[in-house]
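step: validate -> pass
step: tokenize input -> pass
step: predict -> running
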Amino acid sequence: MFSSVRARLTLWYTGILAIALVAFALAGYFFLSYTLNRRTDDALGEMANALAATLANEEADSHQGESKATRGEDVKSTPDEAVKEAVSQNQFRDYRIVVYTDARREVAASAVPQNRSEPGRTRQTMSLIGAAKISGVLDAVARTPDSALYFATLSDGDNDYRVVGRWVQAHGSPYTLIVLRSLHDQEDLLERAGYALIVAVPLALLLASIGGYFLARKSLAPVVRMSATAARISAANLHERLPIANERDELGGLALVINGLLARLDTSFEQQRRFMADASHELRTPIAILRSEAEVALSEPETSNAELRESIAIFKDETKRLTGIVEDLFMLARADAGQYKLTPKGFYLDELTSEVARAVRTLTGEKGLTLQTDAAEEMPFRGDENLLRRLLLNLVDNAIKHTPREGAVTISCKREANRYIITVSDTGEGIAAEVQPHIFDRFYRADSSRSRTEDNSEGLTSGAGLGLSIARWIAEAHNGTLELLHSSEEGSVFQLILPAPRSKEN
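step: predict -> pass
step: emit ->
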């Protein structure tokens, strides 16, 4: 059940909401309880203080007793009578006022409030409290400072009562004032609030879980559609893309990333298909030549030595071409798989360019080309010398192939800041503008008719359109770049940039 993301999201949402609601319910319940208790204490304290003020006023009036008696007015003869009159004048519903002397004799008491829920039980309960537990309150009040209030909660076993006590003075006599109030209504209100929370919290969680599930389902609907589309995509239909509902949200961003991945895979698969087709074509041609030459040589019963030597020479040329193509393919396959390990060592690039120039003098001499080298300074470098030699040979051989007789090929080397710049230029016919972006693609030849001319029979590369692709990979493997700087009717210029070591002056 919980293997679904929707179910897990709903569970998490519901769990977090449950914690929040329970915490809110507990906080609300305890806050309500605290508020009710505070209000009860404030009401009891105000009533006790008001009655104490009334008794104090009665004490002030006692000094005028003689004058009142002379005028024939009613005068309270004793302090107890004054206390009884003050208590009788302060009758409040839900409250009980009791006044005691120092000897803990009850002087006055207000009427017992009737409990609306159990009217017959209230008087009995108040009597039980007065008889059994009021003495403890009186002891506590006796220990409190003058005018200070003492609060306590008493219970008769069934109901709780809030009690406040304080010391008062009337007509020069000390008394202890006790005010009681039943907590039945307050407890009933808290009980009702608790029941309401117990019902409301689970109901809110149920509604939230149902709503959360549908919201999660709606939110994850684009993921379901993307999954269905992705399940249909294979190597045969890599051109399809995932649907995007909103590019600005997280799912839209994920779909964009996956679509970018599919686009790269589509390009890679297309390159692989083209690579396989071109490789098959390049390998099929020399094999077909070898097969046809062998059939011709074997079909004639008597073949002269000259004819056999000619067939063997063709075999040699085509096997040489096959060897070059296979070696190039093997190198590219290892490079793509990251399995071609460089063997770096220290050497000088200017010396390497001189060696390359000497290696191609035979080819330039046969075509009547002029080969020039320009290296003004020493160029120490650390890298794979054999690979860089092959890179330069591919560039120079390509320049020789496409430069007409009496033309020129130039190799120049220089240093600029922290990089080496090696350029190979020729005075050939140039490369058409529409094919320049593709010259570094594998098996791409700008002029396929020139790839198998006689001039290439003694060339240094296979002529299969892999030379520039391999050269660029070698440059990138040495943290460098190789690009066609420019090409026109006056010739082409290839530029190789390699990182140079920092000079000691820096």
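step: describe -> Confidence is low (pLDDT under 50) at residues 117-126, 448-457.
step: cleanup -> pass
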